[in-house]
Amino acid sequence: MTRTKLTRRGFTGALLATSALSACAVQTAPAKAHVVVIGGGFGGATAAKFIRLEDPGIAVTLIEPKSEFVTCPFSNYVIAGFKQIGEITHNYNALTGTHGVRHVRDIAIAIDPATKTVRTGSGQSIRYDKLVVSPGIDIRWGAIEGYTEAAAEILPHAWQGGAQTLLLRRQLEAMPDGGVVALALPPNPYRCPPGPYERISVIAHYLKTTKPRSKILALDAKDAFSKQPLFQDGWNALYPGMIEWVPLNKDGRITQVIAGEKTLVSEFGQRHRADVVNVVPPQFAGKIARDAGLANPDGGSAGWCPVDPITFESTRIKDIHVIGDASIAGAMPKSGFAANSQGKFVAKAIAAALNGRPSFAPVYANTCYSLLAPDYGISVADIYRATPQGIVAVQGAGGVSPRTPADAAQFRHLEATYTRGWYSSATREIWGT
Predict the structure, then answer these.
(1) Where are the beta strands (DSSP E) in 116-162?
(2) Could you give the C-alpha distances from 252 to 143, 187, 239, 245, 264, in angstroms and in order?
């Protein structure tokens, strides 16, 4: 694809702008309606904040058991050692203090569409007029034989930010120089399509600078992946001879793990033993969405939640909107940027519906940035529209980083700067003031 004339800086800035909305005070008048949001990540926290910005007369309750959210975006950089876990950890103080969102620190365990209530682990029953479900992903334990929650304490997935991120980091630090890091990579769809390949890259950076005789073996359940030429160009330039990628057609799909032996077993029986093993397993929508019947029970989209492309209202249950990684969003990938974009438009759709206004045609956006080293970035960007065929990418409105820019080193350095700029801007917009 070719680039538009809009600069990356301008593109990102425009998408993060909020059209002259000002912060609202905590409401004191009776609420005209009550919206409950389940999940305080990129999608849920965005929706909670922007519903209040759209209409301060709407009461919003966020059900999220944690007091802080550790992002999956940028967790690869903690694993590689050039970020600290505190730098990707965000609290809800601005949402509650500045924007008047009520935070219920509890887990949502059941949704009753008939009574429009959410039941929590502590026994609360919270009624809603509209419900936003943004539970992220769960791991499909057992989809790979032997890969259980206990096995993940030996062979971490690190695909949800937090303790698993730090476990994989500690294992890399303890590995001797000359060791092998093996990764088992999942089939589509899954959270953050370029994420595993960025992880390969930044682990390679860590090994090159601290344990240069080490190797990386990437065993993939796919024959192709997001931004593949750009990643492989970077691997050849930055880490020659360090990374071996084995695609599906070369017996790359892992079907069994033997955790105690740190061994991966491929579809045709080849055994791969390594010093550090990172398994990124198949995934599906968070448990509350599946238990509520919001996810498809079977077929190629089993475990993910179908939605109306304009409002992200569930096509299975009325007055419930599913956003972020848990949803089936057509051509949109499962990413933090996409979830943030969806949260804003869902806020507009809910505010319009509760005020008796007509809906509108949203324009969604996503940019996936990846670092191959602290000063080497690449990206892919797209704009999406809702059509009768679902959410589709607008032809010519996006693009990928060029493979051979005129000043390659400077261009990759700028893309790395934009990567950090996006994260700073997005997290400040979502969890800040």
Answers:
(1) 117-120, 125-127, 130-133, 137-139
(2) 16, 11, 21, 8, 10
* 174 C-beta neighbours (distance < 10 Å), count: 10
In this model, does residue 298 exceed pLDDT 80?
yes
Mean pLDDT (the chain) is 93
Beta-carbon contacts of 228 under 8 Å, excluding residues fewer than 6 positions away, are: 197
Helices (H), 87-160: 93-97
Helices (H), 252-304: 287-291
CA 150 to chain centroid: 24
Q: pLDDT tens, 234-251?
A: 999 999 999 999 999 999
- What contacts 356, CB < 8 A, 6 or more positions away? none
Contacts 24+ apart (CB under 8 A), 109-118: 109/288, 109/291, 110/288, 110/291, 110/292, 111/288, 111/291, 111/292, 111/320, 113/292, 113/317, 113/318, 113/319, 113/320, 116/319, 118/36, 118/38, 118/63
Contact 156, 262 (CB under 8 A): no
Q: What is the pTM of this model?
A: 0.92
Rounded CA-CA distance 280/303 in Å is: 17
The tokens of 260 are what? Answer: 């105690």
- Eight-class DSSP state of 71: -
3-state SS class at 358: coil
Q: How many CB atoms lie within 10 A of CB 164?
A: 20
Residue 155 φ then ψ, to 5°: -115, 85
